[in-house]
Amino acid sequence: MIVCHCQNITDADINAAVDWMRASDDRTIITPGKVYRALGKAADCGGCMPLFLSVMRQNDNLEVPMHLRHLKPAATQENHHERRQKGH
Fold this sequence. Notes:
The chain is mainly alpha-helical. It has one domain (2-82). It has 4 helices and 2 strands, in the order ββαααα. The chain has a two-stranded antiparallel sheet with strand order 1-2. It is globular and about 50 Å long.
């Protein structure tokens, strides 16, 4: 199925790129931008992004590797404001 008409990218292309990235580096975080680059293409209009992401999410190799999960706690909105300097 064609996912991105602008760049002629299919679901098979996306899955192959995700699988290749995971096989070549089990520590990488796979993003849509990395998939486009792996395919030698770039996003154009962005209309395909919801379907593009849906195809990516269905691939079992997309998951963040277990050893990379929870490395840094997420900053809360409250903590973000506490870091501001007084005059701002």
